Amino acid sequence: MVLVGGEGTRLRPLTERTPKPMLPLLGRPLLSYTFDHLRSAGANRVVLACGYLPTQIAEYFGDRYDGLALEYRVEPEVLGTGGAIRFGAEGFSETFLALNGDCLREADVATLVDFHRAMGAKATILLARVSDPGRYGLVRRDEVGRVTAFVEKPDASEIDTDLINAGLYVLEPEILDLITPGVPVSIEREVFPALVEEGSLYALALPGYWLDVGTRQSYLQAHFDLLNRNGGTEIAPTAEIGAETSLVPPVYIGDGAQVQREARIGPCVALGADSQVGRRGTVRFSTVLAAAQVAARARITNRIIAPEIGVITP
Question: What is the pTM of this model?
Answer without folding.
Answer: 0.92
